[in-house]
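Notebook p. 47: complex prediction with norvaline.
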Amino acid sequence: MLLFKMNKDFISISHLSPDELELLLKEAQVMKQKRNLALLQGKTIALLFEKPSLRTRLSFEMAMKQLGGQALYLSPQEVGMGKREPIHDVARVLSRYVDGIAARTLLHSTLLTLATYSSVPVINALTDWEHPCQSLADLLTIQEKKGRLSGLNLAYIGDGNNVSNSLMLACSLIGMNFRIASPPGYKINEEILTQSQNFAAISGSKITLSEDPVQSVRGADIVYSDVWVSMGQESETEKRRMAFSRYQVNEALLSLANKDALFMHPLPAHHGEEISVDMLENPHSVVFDQAENRLYAQKAVLVRLLLPDNSEVASV
Ligand code: CP
Ligand code: NVA
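Predicted complex, structure tokens below:
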């Protein structure tokens, strides 16, 4: 296995080069094959979460346990980041106790402040801007199911949000074609689009924006959906339900994609909203494999960031 040195933190999927992304995916596969590699014995990470979580919290906790280390969950009420104590003080205090921080923050700027002031690695466990750990697990799942990534067509139906931001960046880095269908007012962010187009110019991937889900899913190898109302947007629920009503992924829409298309969703899902009530049971659905793969993708990230010298990984 080749060696590479990641940045101190894992904030954005775009901070990886295409080669680094490929290697990280290979290492995630190794983690899946060898579940109890005690590479992080004696290491501890703090889970600093300002929003709820099932998958991310549990996969980080299990990842550290299986790697021989431990994870400590810190609730928002306890820490009161930015209220009880300034963010930069929280970062400096945690750096004296733990070897890494996985943070899920309401604002991306909070994560950036944590990373700036912390002397230990900071991992983005979801912000309002990106969800890079999710994209890593998504690519791992697609690679497993399709045997390749480059040249595949992924159609994302819905909100231009944290999940689509990371996914568009990841696809354009790795050479997958990324289509997104969103209603007016909910399109992908311009900055993310420009960055992705720059990556696509190198990788050869094609990026297509549309307002028409039907147009996007035709010929797609993967149909991807996420919630219409992300955490923190609850006050916009009714407005969003109306805006996205034509953007439900259901059997009829999926039938327009390629015959062997995968259906993906990061979960949690709102059944009857962004997906029809039976979508998770659809034979094309790989959502639970996708959820499982969060564990292996994050193990690869943790080992990269917490082992100062990655020679142990190389010898696996
Ligand atoms: N997909 C995901 O991040 O799930 P949680 O919000 O439950 O962690
Ligand atoms: N876009 C969703 C993803 C949840 C994993 C949210 O931010 O709530």
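Notes: The longest helix spans residues 287-306. The longest strand covers residues 44-49.
Next step: compare against the earlier run before touching the bench.
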